[in-house]
TrEMBL record, chains A, B:
Residue sites binding L-homoserine per the record: 192
GO biological process terms on file: methionine biosynthetic process; threonine biosynthetic process
UniProt keywords, alphabetically: Amino-acid biosynthesis, Methionine biosynthesis, NADP, Oxidoreductase, Threonine biosynthesis
Coiled coil, from the record: none
A GO MF label: homoserine dehydrogenase activity
Active-site residues from the entry: 207 (proton donor)
EC number: 1.1.1.3
Highest classification ranks of the organism: Bacteria, Pseudomonadati, Pseudomonadota, Alphaproteobacteria, Rhodobacterales
Family as reported in the entry's similarity comment: Belongs to the homoserine dehydrogenase family.
Domain ACT: 350-424
Name of the protein in its database record: Homoserine dehydrogenase
UniProt cross-references to PROSITE patterns, sorted A to Z: ACT
Pathway linked to the protein: Amino-acid biosynthesis; L-threonine biosynthesis; L-threonine from L-aspartate: step 3/5; Amino-acid biosynthesis; L-methionine biosynthesis via de novo pathway; L-homoserine from L-aspartate: step 3/3
One Pfam family recorded for the sequence: NAD_binding_3
Length: 428, 428
């Protein structure tokens, strides 16, 4: 048995206390598995006086996370504060500069500053691990960088925001409108302080940026992601999708195309019978496709104390075992800057239009779609009591460019009362 | 870039040629990810003259795998011959003795001789990796030993024989009897030369023994597994299960109980709406439950050239990166010899009896069950034209001991014409 691996834990919220709990509860197991004792020497959080349910008096307390990161008795700085800038980034940089390895759950920081932090880590001969930043307890980073290292990855997809999936499945199961379920989720404490991070697809977008980077060997490019939230999904979209054998999911998709790297985080229709379609509630799922392995599906809790702490401890155990790897799976200086491209590959789309009840209205829409080269597979117009009738269209495969041209032209007509809703039908 | 990692590949069947193909096709990618060139220096197979579709003339040829394992220009011995004893074991031992690391897909060899091989490897300072031995392309060994290293594992379950799952789902979807589908699977080349390895649950049992060992830190104990094949599953069992909202799967389950380690590989009923219940065809699935992570589900191809070679290459890349770990996740000498126990935890069971059409027959069965303390949840007797009527019973939770007592007593009566079929209903 060599010297212990000493952790400094910054951030003692749900996840931080989960890590403290595992380190204490499973000390013998961790030592048996890694060949080293894993200990916590110091901690840091905003409020030193708060009762967190466990006695923390055995650990040195640092009110400043930067000071924690620089302590001589800390080998690994465990960053669980969150926030893309500010104390989390300052302390991470301080830890690397002081020669510490870093384990973090901070998706925003890495999605935005991942490249510069990775370069800094590699220059210092240190590593940054972030299994807990993507898909909670699911070891997806490890699966991509290590388990599937022999594969050229062709596509990565995932439902990675449990709150959005909860809202969408609850709308379907209870037949409730978005606004009602959003309010429910807020009351249950499921939403971030800024709910746009969840329902706007930003949190999931951060995760997709990290997955893309390790899957394709590219510089993390959050700005290159086409992001669309779930706010405009109506209960009738969900019902119509179900009628046609689909479910609507906030789905992240990253794939390499001839024109560059395509990254999308947007509501999509997926077959109801597929693993993604069957995913209920707050559970996450990541689908990885590679040239050799074909398709691997990983499913598990995307958040919560135990699962997220499990992911953090997986990283810590790797470090205790001496497993060291470049942050994004290969040296940061070798990551490519791939041009980003928008939905280069054609796909079928689902459209919902609010059409005025005027003679020739439908003909006008059909003509516009035809002029843009968008061909109609199925169309339904519904009986209605109001002035605007819902019209649902499923197109044949079309490019997003052609579709956008048609949608812009439709919006300019005098026969629709609201911007059309357009959802991609993803083949999974 | 350090020196190349040099592989010697023994066995050039489907998987072996898949490995050769990846090493050649993805040379640049592998080097970028691991920081080392990965090369093949020598190969071995029974028939040197056979056309395998790729030019192998650049590699030294050894007709004897032991000689291959001992070559000075081989760092990693890749054993893809199969067979629990014989050349595979001889060459693996020779490789370890000669100071080589070993990567193998050989579940039978490790399930039977894993402990002694692991001890030999550790004494020699070498490692044995076997991701490809369990669940094909799914990185389940890595997930258990590394990703979930912070967890006390509470249960591992899996559908790990694609042929059995193909047979069971094909029976259900096509409404065909076991014998017909077995013949189909044989004609399609899905079955091992000795089909009992597949349909008798032995192949899947080998995999379960390996999963149990790494999940629970125990000596691999294939003999401790309660194994039952799918040969007695009738189409009516599948139909009845479906009627009640279940599917029948050949399911491996390992869990620690107060009385010891329980390992079962047997047909079970699982909820049709669960990920296990929804698994179709030859796909594999492993469900891992831990005290922190709750539940992780992994799904992917359980066999085939690309997926299995992908798993082999994941192990090879780990070795190239310098990741070295004890064979079963912790030193072999620290693995416990847990007593094996048979279905210690109570569960509900599905029973099918072929009951003679005699007055009082059903009463006799009900009385026997009651006397053994097995209480009936649901019972159905079917209309029939023959002398024996199918009777289906779902019990409340009962111990296997009580159930076995009742089944033995039922067999001794004069009212059944065949041994009862009893399938556990697993909560997943």
């Amino acid at each position: 048995m060599t010297t212990p691996l000493r952790l400094g834990v910054a951030g003692l919220g749900t996840v931080g206390m989960g890590v403290v709990s595992i380190v204490r509860r499973q000390a013998a197991l961790l030592a048996a598995r890694t060949g080293r004792d894993i200990t916590i020497t110091a901690v840091s959080a905003r409020d030193a006086g708060k009762d967190r349910g466990l006695d923390l008096s055995a650990y040195a307390w640092e009110s400043d996370p930067v000071a924690l990161a620089q302590r001589d008795d800390v080998d690994v700085f465990v960053e669980l504060m969150g926030g893309e800038d500010g104390p989390a980034k300052d302390a991470t940089e301080a830890a690397l500069a002081a020669g510490k390895d870093v384990v973090t759950a901070n998706k925003a920081m890495l999605a935005i500053h991942g490249q510069s932090l990775a370069e800094m880590a590699e220059a210092a001969g240190r590593v940054i691990r972030f299994e807990a930043a993507v898909a909670g307890g699911i070891p997806v980073i490890k699966t991509l960088t290590e388990g599937l290292a022999g594969n050229e990855i062709t596509r990565v997809m995932g439902v990675m925001n449990g709150t959005c999936n909860y809202i969408l499945t609850r709308m379907e199961n209870a037949g409730l409108p978005y606004e009602t379920v959003f309010k429910e989720a807020d009351d249950l404490g499921y939403l971030e302080a800024d709910p746009t991070l969840d329902v706007g697809g930003i949190d999931a977008g951060h995760k997709l940026a990290l997955l893309s980077s390790i899957a394709f060997g590219t510089v993390p490019d959050f700005d290159g992601i086409e992001i669309e939230g779930i706010q405009r999904i109506a209960i009738e979209d969900i019902r119509q999708a179900a009628d046609m054998g689909y479910r609507i999911k906030l789905l992240g998709v990253a794939q390499r195309t001839g024109r560059g790297l395509e990254q999308r985080m947007q509501p999509c229709l997926v077959p109801a019978s597929s693993p993604l379609g069957q995913l209920e509630g707050g559970t996450n799922m990541v689908v990885i496709e590679g040239d050799a392995v074909e398709q691997i599906v990983l499913r598990g809790p995307g958040a919560g104390q135990g699962p997220t702490a499990s992911a953090v401890m997986g990283d810590v155990c790797d470090l205790a075992r001496g497993f060291r790897m470049a942050t994004f799976g290969q040296p940061a200086t070798t990551l490519q800057s791939a041009p980003s491209t928008r939905a280069a590959l054609p796909a079928p789309y689902y459209l919902r239009l609010a059409l005025l009840d005027k003679p020739g209205a439908l003909a006008k829409i059909a003509a516009i779609l035809g002029n843009s080269g968008v061909s109609i597979d199925r169309m339904r117009q519904y009986a209605h009591s109001e002035t605007a009738a819902p019209v649902l269209i499923v197109t044949h495969k079309t490019t997003r460019t052609a579709l956008d041209e048609a949608l812009a032209a439709i919006e300019k007509t005098d026969v629709v009362v609201a911007p059309p809703v357009a959802l991609r039908i993803e083949s999974v």
